[in-house]
Amino acid sequence: MVGETDPGRIPYYMAASTVLLALIIWSVASIGSARRIGVAAAFGVAAAVSVVGILFAKFGANFGLPWQVYYTVPMLATVLGPPVVFRFNLARWLAYVGLAGVSAPLIHAGFFYALGWSDYMPFLHLPR
Fold first, then answer.
1. How far, rounded to the nearest angstrom, does the alpha carbon of residue 36 sit from its chain's CA centroid?
2. 64 in helix, strand or coil?
3. Cα–Cα dist 69/87, whole Å
4. Max alpha carbon distance in the chain (Å)?
5. pLDDT digit of tens for each residue in the chain (128 aa)?
6. How far is CA 45 from CA 22, 26, 120, in A?
């Protein structure tokens, strides 16, 4: 059931999400730009979005919020937060959204196939 994550896995999900999102932010912001952002800045924003988003989703599910709320709020923070903070233009925003959109399923697949954990995105069923 959604929300029934082993609490010991949450730090791993946060770390994977933060690292991947930071790489995406830094890459998109840096491609073809004379104005580069620092890795620390990308990591800080990614950590804020990832950690708060995962905790909101976990506790939202546990406290009975509808899935439309506890999945949508972190998704909106991910889609809107970094582009606003780093002032992405439309082309960068579209590239960022595309890459960020595939990051969660990739993290889910990584944990599923490497460790057998299927609760990062429990509604996404993968073949064994």
1. 22
2. coil
3. 26
4. 47
5. 344 567 888 899 999 999 999 999 999 998 877 678 999 999 999 999 999 998 998 888 888 888 888 889 999 999 999 999 999 999 999 999 999 999 988 998 999 999 988 887 777 788 88
6. 8, 10, 21
Closest CA to 41 of 15, 56, 21: 21
Given this model, what pLDDT does residue 2 score? 44
Between helix 10-30 and helix 90-115 the angle, nearest 10°, is 150
The alpha carbon of residue 53 and the mean position of all alpha carbons in its chain are separated, in whole angstroms, by: 8
Helix (H, G, I), strand (E, B) or coil at 32: coil
CA distance 72 to 85: 19
Q: Is 89 left (phi over 0), alpha (psi -120 to 50) or beta?
A: beta
